[in-house]
Amino acid sequence: MKIAAEKALxxxxxxxxxxxxxxxxSRRNVKTSEEGGTILSLTVSRSDGKTEPIRLENLHLYENxxxxxxxxxSYDASPARIVLLVDNxxxxxxxxxQLQAAVKEFAYEIFxxxxxxxxxxxxxxxxxxxxTDDAKKIEASLATFRKQGNPHLFDxxxxxxxxxxxxxxxxxxxxxxxxxSDGLDRGSKTNFENILAELQNQNITLYALQxxxxxxxxxxxxxxxxxxxIAQLTEGTGGRVFDFExxxxxxxxxxxxxxxxxxxxxxxxxxxSTYDARRVFLVADEGISVRTKAVHPPNVK
Length: 301
Fold this sequence. Notes:
Layout: H1 2-26, E1 30-31, E2 38-46, E3 59-63, E4 66-68, E5 70-75, E6 81-87, H2 96-107, E7 115-121, E8 125-132, H3 135-141, H4 153-165, E9 175-181, H5 192-201, E10 204-210, H6 226-237, E11 241-243, H7 247-260, E12 262-267, E13 272-273, E14 278-284, E15 288-291, E16 295-296
Parallel strand pairs: 6-7, 6-9, 9-10, 10-11
Antiparallel strand pairs: 1-13, 2-12, 2-15, 3-4, 3-14, 5-12, 7-8, 14-16
Helix pairs in contact: 2-3, 2-7, 4-5, 5-6
């Protein structure tokens, strides 16, 4: 009954989206793609206690309100590259020691082959530690943390995406940013919509250790409120939010998830506009949870 209700809800949402997209598709090049196909990075896990492998038959995929046939689903065993992006601004609530302790948790949880890059930001992003898997080296580098200036969060995310992670691509598939912040941006030249789109286009998953909002929910001109920034960045890229106070649990969960629960799904888009941004709905059988980013680039190359 539960899975039937979920499928009914998804089909209803797909119908509503179909009405919106129908007009656009009638004026655009709508066809069955005859090239390569599309690959999605997913986070898939079981909550039913079963041990059998998750198969493509367990998932149902809709793109822009049109159901698609899944060609392949495979476990992704590749190593992860994780950027720890830490708010180092003057008014952030935790102490320097608490911020350092949160980063240390990740240094001791990564798997063999994974590497970490640490960036702290205020009005400019600062490299604290370049790519390494050496926990002692990471721990020693954190002595340079400080608290000063305003948080230019969106500029720091842009730097992490384009200057740290982009050079690894296309060879590295599994990239993530772990943001330690309350979501406040004060002064960035990069706007929120652009950085969210950039993370989505580059297939970077954003996780967050959310610090209590220092603004008390204050209205932010031309951008979401601080907690909404965290929510939209994580949901939009297929990540998750954890409380800052639970950094040990967060580090273990994120590192485990990247190593054990990442899958690659491939399909050939059919009856889809090649120029529209692609909104993907994934439905899993009961007892299975699945996440991916909310929006994908158009199919046109």
